[in-house]
Each structure stands twice: as structure tokens, then as C-alpha cells.
């Protein structure tokens, strides 16, 4: 059965507001949560950037939902610290927490003052980080010298079962590379043909039979014009190609580049419709591609009505209620 979850966008809402929204989402029938992990928002119009790991403890306590977070161990975070944080949440809330890992964006990682490596080096660093995290979760003492350095690290608080590590991949190349080592895949809702290529690449690389998670960036509002306007105001810069999203360093740079994105340019990158039935149709196509977990991110600011309407019109269809 497909699980439909709510995406909590730390870039757009204060942590206290997100707690209210995730509780409202659970009451409406959403069955899981996902959150972003940023130091900066993409643009100043989004306006927030709370610390995801603090918030996750509160959200897991405030609800009964399972949660995931997408992070980038290796630069801003040392993987031993991520391993400790994830182990603590998994011990507190057994079988309710998983972690997705990616190679990161300069927007968040450059704050350490270290050079932001090219993509192949970031991938190699990520793979080392995952190895370190898994070794620490076995309880062994870990020393590692490579693109990251670990000296005699050992975790003393461990969960009964280690969290699942899911690879974040936007391209078929990254998805295929991750298929052999990740416990699952998470990607975003590309146009259908592009999304199919990511799925096929993950399976080809060794991911056959592993769970797949999809972050669905959509814009629903009471009318089409409001949905389109809200998507463009809040998320236009996020429709830029992946290499651009990875390399820009500051919110004002995203704003400058995003100012050239026209409302019609975001078609295909964000699912825009005021019709809940249209969203059901799109989501059923995702299920047909093999996604087990769909996390809905309404990119405009009208979250409460979105949660209410989708709880009444969309979730029952997808959950088979």
C-alpha cells in the first residue's frame, strides 16, 4: 500500500508553525512526514530556515507519524554527528525514523569556509560518510582516513534497529550509482519521462525491490490563478537545473536567477492545479511507476486549506479508504 506523507518545508515556515501543520496533517489522514534540512532558505521570500534535527524530536513526540529527513553528511555535518543524531531519534522512536543522504548544495555547505567540491568528489565523500555511519551503528569503534577523517569514534546509545539510509538522487546517473549501496531512493517529481528514467536507473544499478520515495512538489489553491501565482512566487528559483541548484551560494543569487523564470516556465516542474481529482490522477501515475511513499509538498503558503482539502478528496483515494 502506498503511503502518502506531508512535506514540512523549513525554508518556508517557522518550526512552531510546522508543528501545528504536521499535527493537522496527521489528523487529516497523512500517514508520514518528511522535512528539508537547510541552513539557508532558497530565497528570502521563503523566509525561514529552522534546524531540522531539533524540530524532528518535537515532531516525532507531537505525532505518531514516521519521519524522514534529507541531509548532506560530509561538510556542514560530520557523518559521525549525523550517525549519533539519527541513532538517538531511532532509539527514542523505534521504527519511525529514516535518513536520506545527498551530496548537498553550496547554498548550505559553503558556510564552513571549505571549498565546495565538484560532483564526483562530493559523491565519493558521501559514499565514505555512509560507510562511517553504518559502521558506527554496529557499535564498533571507527577510525577512517579519506575524504573525511574519523578518529576512534564509538556510539554508546544505539537503537535496536539502525535507521534506513535512502539516497537522494535527481539524475539517472546518480540514481544508478546509488542503487547498489542505498536502502532506497528518494527523488522529486520530474516530468513523467524523466522520472521514469530515474526509476529505471536506480533499479538497474541494484535498487530492484528497494523502497522508493517521491517528493511531489505541487501547487494547489482554491483557483488556478492563485495556485499558479503561489507557485511562481515561492518556488520559481527551485525549478532551475540541478547543477545550478547545487552551485549557487546565497539566497540573493537564487532570487536573481529566479527573476528570469516566467510563470509558464515552471510547467512540468511543479504540478499546478486547483482540481483535487487532477492531483489524484497524477499521483496514481507515480504509484504505477513503483513509488511506495509519496510526500506532498504544496509549495505555496496556503497549507491549512491544502491539508483539509487533500484529506477529504485525495488521501482516501490513494490510501484505498
UniProtKB/TrEMBL annotation:
**CDD domains in UniProt:** Tetrahydromethanopterin_reductase (cd01097)
What molecular function does GO assign, one term?
oxidoreductase activity, acting on paired donors, with incorporation or reduction of molecular oxygen
Q: Which residues form the Luciferase-like domain?
A: 7-293
Keyword Oxidoreductase recorded: yes
Q: Which keywords does the record carry?
A: Oxidoreductase
**UniProt KW Cytoplasm keyword:** no
This protein is called Similar to F420-dependent glucose-6-phosphate dehydrogenase, Mext_1273 family
- Name its species: uncultured Thermomicrobiales bacterium
Upper lineage: Bacteria, Pseudomonadati, Thermomicrobiota, Thermomicrobia, Thermomicrobiales
Amino acid at each position: 500500500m502506498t503511503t502518502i506523507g506531508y512535506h514540512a518545508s523549513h525554508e518556508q515556515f517557522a518550526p512552531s508553525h510546522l508543528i501545528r501543520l504536521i499535527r493537522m496533517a496527521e489528523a487529516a489522514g497523512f500517514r508520514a512526514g518528511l522535512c528539508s534540512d537547510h541552513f539557508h532558505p532558497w530565497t528570502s521570500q521563503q523566509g525561514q530556515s529552522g534546524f531540522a534535527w531539533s524540530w524532528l524530536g518535537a515532531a516525532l513526540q507531537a505525532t505518531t507519524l514516521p519521519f524522514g529527513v534529507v541531509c548532506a553528511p560530509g561538510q556542514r555535518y560530520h557523518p559521525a554527528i549525523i550517525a549519533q543524531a539519527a541513532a538517538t531519534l531511532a532509539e527514542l522512536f523505534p521504527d519511525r525514523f529514516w535518513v536520506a543522504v545527498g551530496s548537498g548544495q553550496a547554498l548550505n555547505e559553503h558556510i564552513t569556509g571549505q571549498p565546495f567540491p565538484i560532483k564526483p568528489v562530493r559523491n565519493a565523500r558521501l559514499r565514505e560518510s555512509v560507510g562511517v555511519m553504518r559502521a558506527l551503528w554496529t557499535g564498533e569503534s571507527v577510525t577512517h582516513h579519506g575524504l573525511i577523517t574519523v578518529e576512534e569514534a564509538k556510539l554508546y546509545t544505539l537503537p535496536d534497529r539502525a535507521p534506513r539510509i535512502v539516497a537522494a538522487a535527481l539524475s539517472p546517473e546518480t540514481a544508478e550509482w546509488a542503487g547498489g549501496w542505498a536502502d532506497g531512493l528518494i527523488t522529486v517529481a520530474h516530468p513523467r519521462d524523466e522520472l521514469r528514467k530515474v526509476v529505471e536507473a536506480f533499479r538497474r544499478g541494484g535498487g530492484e525491490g528497494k523502497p522508493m520515495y517521491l517528493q511531489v512538489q505541487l501547487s494547489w489553491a482554491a483557483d488556478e490563478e492563485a495556485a499558479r501565482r503561489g507557485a511562481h512566487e515561492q518556488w520559481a528559483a527551485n525549478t532551475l537545473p540541478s547543477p545550478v541548484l547545487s552551485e549557487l551560494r546565497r539566497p540573493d543569487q537564487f532570487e536573481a536567477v529566479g527573476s528570469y523564470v516566467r510563470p509558464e516556465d515552471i510547467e512540468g516542474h511543479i504540478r499546478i492545479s486547483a482540481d483535487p481529482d487532477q492531483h489524484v490522477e497524477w499521483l496514481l501515475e507515480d504509484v504505477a511507476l513503483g513509488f511506495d511513499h509519496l510526500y506532498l509538498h504544496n509549495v505555496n503558503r496556503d497549507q491549512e486549506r491544502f491539508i483539509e482539502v487533500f484529506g477529504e478528496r485525495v488521501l482516501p483515494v490513494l490510501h484505498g479508504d
